Amino acid sequence: MCNKKYYDSVLKCPICGNDFFNVGRGRVKEYCSIDCKNINSFLNSIESKLIGISFKTESDKKALKSRIWSMSNLITFKISKDKK
Ligand SMILES: [Zn+2]
Question: How many domains does the structure of the chain reveal?
Answer without folding.
Answer: 1
